[in-house]
Design a protein that fits this description.
The complex is a heterodimer of chains A (172) and B (269).
Chain A (H helix, E strand, L loop, with lengths): L2 H17 L11 H4 L2 E7 L2 E6 L9 H14 L5 E5 L12 H10 L1 E2 L5 H5 L22 E5 L7 E6 L5 E5 L3
Parallel strand pairs in A: 2-3, 4-7
Antiparallel strand pairs in A: 1-2, 5-6, 6-7
Chain B lengths: L13 H21 L8 H29 L5 H6 L28 H22 L5 H29 L3 H14 L11 H9 L9 H14 L23 H14 L6
Helix pairs in contact in B: 1-2, 1-7, 2-5, 4-5, 4-6, 4-8, 5-6
The chains are: A alpha/beta (172), B mainly alpha (269).
Chain lengths: 172, 269
């Protein structure tokens, strides 16, 4: 194998290993599903994984960096460094189609996928948010119970049709 | 007995001051919001206030780390937060005013003050982050590009509350009106242009504060109109927190916020 092919194989292996690293707060999603892995680079002194934080104050940031490092070391790809890249800022539009499907199946309403396009038109208040479809019964007759939820990235809703509460992954 | 940690002293160049004004405004506002943890009027608001505090702490951490790099003596975000004296903090005076607790000398402390202050600040920060995202300083631009999304969500949430209280019962409207009268004189400082602003503007580092005035006035007036509230008249008072000259409340906040690192230098857990 050429040196370039060896590097390509190691990078592919690193991406595969990252499929197995769950988000600690939404464990149904891997860090790749979440769209926070921005790059995997091979340097002379090892592999560098470039992550982007979801929210400025997300308390899971350090845990995720540790899990990523550990997963790659376990896959025999060490030494590994993890760095953070802030720009461009993470958006829920980067959650993969597979990630959206997993969220839905897990009972969390996925974000729109068009947050970036909607951002410019966002108003200063939104007393009546648009109907978010219930991940259980599909009804769009839902109401928001709480703008903030159990983690920085979610809000709490209730379905008026099936009466079940559910979480909504806020589009940003 | 541990030695008490001494204060650090910064080389306060105009860019360092400019970044610290924003960082300290986020940090002290977050510290005040955190006082609500476990005391919110309803569970949903307890969670909301602490979530907003968390975003603000994250923004402050990134900005303080950056201020440390610009300052050049190698101080990190923790040293900047916990080992500076009062006169080296440059937050807006508004954010250090009592929020949850009140006293005879500092009226307020009801939920309307919290709602209103959050709204005035989220609107200001959103306008600031929007412009700062085009900063010539790429780190600052990256922090702002992220923070603007958070500020937008905060503004919508607290804007809803301004309308709910202002256009609510006679009691809620009276309380919000009183909160607005108390906070309004402190908003003058949000738009006061000085040499630090001029230098930042000239270097492309970020906007001068007066450049935020039009966007802020427009959005605040629109939400206050929706809430059936009149925009208060301006007063001659100007607060001076951004110059490092604070109100009597600042020392108490710092005493609480810094006590652990002062007594146990470098303490970690």
């Amino acid at each position: 194998m050429t040196a370039a092919a060896v590097v390509a194989n190691r990078i592919d292996a690193a991406w595969s290993a990252l499929d197995g690293v769950p988000d600690p707060e939404v464990p149904v999603l891997s860090v790749r599903d979440l769209g926070i892995v921005r790059d995997v680079l091979e340097h002379a002194d090892g592999i560098e994984v470039v992550l982007t934080p979801t929210y400025s104050g997300c308390p899971a940031t350090e845990v995720i960096a540790d899990s990523v490092r550990q997963a790659l070391v376990d896959a025999g790809l060490g030494p590994v460094t993890v760095s953070h890249r802030w720009a461009p800022a993470w958006t829920t539009d980067w959650i993969s189609a597979e990630g959206r499907r997993k969220l839905q199946a897990y009972g969390i309403a996925p974000p729109s996928g068009t947050a970036a396009a909607a951002a410019g038109a966002a108003g200063t208040i939104r007393i009546r948010p648009l109907g978010v479809a219930c991940p259980r019964c599909g009804s769009d007759q839902t109401e928001r119970l709480s703008a903030f939820g159990s983690t920085a990235c979610k809000a709490l809703y209730r379905c008026l049709a099936c009466r079940e509460p559910f979480e909504y992954f806020k589009p940003i | 007995m541990n030695a008490v940690a001494g204060s650090i002293r910064l080389n306060l160049t105009p860019p360092v001051r400019y970044v610290l004004r924003i960082a300290d405004t986020c940090l002290i506002h977050a510290q005040r919001l955190a006082e609500w943890c476990g005391h919110g009027p309803v569970l949903e608001e307890d969670i909301a206030l602490t979530n907003m505090a968390l975003d603000l702490v994250g923004q402050a951490r990134a900005l303080l780390a950056h201020a440390g790099r610009l300052e050049g003596q190698g101080f990190d975000e923790d040293q900047l937060a916990f080992l500076r004296d009062e006169r080296q903090f440059f937050n807006l005076t508004l954010v250090e005013q009592p929020m949850r607790r009140s006293s005879a000398h500092a009226p307020g402390g009801d939920f309307a003050d919290t709602v209103l202050r959050n709204f005035l600040l989220a609107t200001w920060l959103k306008a600031l982050w929007t412009r700062l995202a085009a900063s010539s300083d790429s780190d600052l631009a990256a922090i702002a590009g992220k923070a603007v999304k958070e500020a937008r969500y905060h503004q919508q949430h607290v804007g809803d509350w301004v309308v709910r209280l202002g256009d609510g019962t006679d009691e809620s409207a009276a309380r919000l009106r009183a909160a607005l009268e108390r906070a309004w004189p402190y908003t003058h400082e949000m738009f006061k242009r000085d040499a630090v602003d001029v230098a930042a503007e000239a270097a492309g580092l970020g906007p001068a504060r007066d450049a935020l005035n039009d966007a802020w006035q427009t959005e605040v007036a629109a939400v206050l109109a929706e809430a059936q509230l009149a925009v208060p008249a301006d007063t001659p008072f100007t607060s001076t927190g951004t110059l490092g000259r604070h109100s009597e409340h600042m020392g108490f906040i710092l005493a609480e916020m810094q006590s652990l690192q002062r007594q146990y230098p470098g303490g970690r857990w």
